[in-house]
Amino acid sequence: MIPSAFDYVRPADLGEALRILKEREGEAKVLSGGFSLLPLIKLRLAQPGLLVDLRDVGGLNGLTRDGDLFRIGGRATHRQILEDRPLTDALPIMKDAASRIGDPQIRNWGTIGGSVAHADPAADWPAVLQALHASIVLRSADGERTVPARGFFIDTFTTGIEPAEILTEIQIPFPPPRSGGSYQKLERRAGDFSTVGAAVQMTLGADGRITQIGIGLTAVADSPFAATHAEDALRGAHPNDELFREAAAAASRQSRPATDSHGPAEYKRAMVTEMTARALRAALARAQAQG
Ligand SMILES: Cc1cc2nc3c(=O)[nH]c(=O)nc-3n(C[C@H](O)[C@H](O)[C@H](O)COP(=O)(O)OP(=O)(O)OC[C@H]3O[C@@H](n4cnc5c(N)ncnc54)[C@H](O)[C@@H]3O)c2cc1C
After folding, report:
1. What CATH number belongs to 179-286?
2. What's the pTM value of the predicted model, to 2 decimals?
3. Helix boundaries (H) for 30-84
4. Does the CB atom of residue 183 touch ligand 1 within 6 A?
5. Beta-carbon contacts of residue 205 (< 8 Å; ≥ 6 apart)
6. What is the mean pLDDT of residues 156-182?
């Protein structure tokens, strides 16, 4: 299908991009890697009047540690994240997820900001960022705001981002000692979107109890969500396999998968239990290896 006509601009800096988005609010759309937006435009499922291509806008693809925060630019590619040793050494869950997104072409061009803004329920980053209690920085011509990843994903392909805002940065707290995380993805073939994905990040206290826990789930509800019931069952407890099985079952009960080409809802619920239990065990092993 031939896309409907649209204007195209390549602003030189963030200020210009934000000004254009404000002037053409409602009809302009940001273009980052293009892997999600361009197919929608080709199918006329999206018909923006203007594409604001961010490729020349500097300062949006850095990966830095700043005190207790990792700052990841909105235009950082999946591959940049995969290859950033300071980040992936501290947070191996980021490598788990980045390495399983699509194929090399997708990882070379697709961006974390595009993935988060697009909010596909089957995308991998949203669940990981919720497990990590990350925050999302949004800029508009009128200012900046920082919102928690939890609560940002409202519905399928719907987030709290306003039309004239640009997602400029993801902020992730640097993990305390004795922390470990894991992202477990079930896919039909290598490179596919998740059938089910489970992200776990945990911190152990000096006595071995779980002091901090985050669990995010991919592709098993209208939007990626935090499995808060499972988290409640784990926080403050001594980790063991039986507890992990109970918590994983609680995560499954909180999920709302749909029957689709990836399989029946009942199968996916069973897979939530399995993938969450695997992620919990792997996260614990990594946390214990640190201590
Ligand atoms: C074949 C294929 C396989 C894939 N497999 C996976 C997978 O296994 N796991 C996975 O998670 N993803 C997968 N993806 C999606 C891929 O990760 C995309 O790169 C990602 O979803 C969108 O990022 P993008 O940079 O291409 O965004 P774009 O397509 O450019 O934009 C997507 C949306 O986000 C908006 N947007 C982009 N950047 C910003 C910003 N900085 N601020 C505000 N709004 C913004 C755009 O306006 C648009 O609405 C796959 C895609 C394809 C085509």
Report:
1. 3.30.390.50
2. 0.97
3. 37-42, 78-82
4. no
5. 178, 211
6. 97
- In words, the CATH class of domain 7-53 is alpha beta
Give, using CA atoms, the residue closest to atom 5 of ligand 1. Answer: 102
CA 203 from chain centre, in angstroms, equals 20
Q: Ligand 1 pocket: which of 21, 111, 186 to mutate (most atoms <8 Å of CB)?
A: 111
Token pair for residue 20? Answer: 């254009």
Q: Which residues pair with 147 in a beta bridge?
A: 136
Quick check: CB of 35 below 6 Å from ligand 1?
yes
> Is 36 a pocket residue for ligand 1 (Cβ < 6 Å)?
yes
Q: In a 10 Å sphere around its CB, with 0-12 CB exposed, 13-18 middle and 19+ buried, how is residue 244 labelled?
A: buried
Best residue among 10, 103, 106, 217 to mutate for probing ligand 1, ranked by most atoms within 8 Å of CB: 106
30 strand-pairing partners: 52
- For 74-123, what is each residue's pLDDT tens digit? 999 999 999 999 999 999 999 999 999 999 999 999 999 999 999 999 99
Concatenated DSSP letters of 236-251? TSPP-HHHHHHHHHHH
Q: Report the side by side order of strands in the sheet with 28-31.
A: 7-9, 50-53, 28-31
pLDDT in tens, 195-244: 999 999 999 999 999 999 999 999 999 999 999 999 999 999 999 999 99
**CATH code of domain 65-173:** 3.30.465.10
Ligand 1 centroid distance, CA of 262 (Å) = 20
Domain ranges across the chain: 7-53, 65-173, 179-286
Nearest-CA residue for atom 19 of ligand 1: 110
Query: Best of 24, 31, 35 to mutate for ligand 1, by most ligand atoms within 8 A of CB?
Result: 35
Burial (CB < 10 A; 0-12, 13-18, 19+), residue 217, is buried
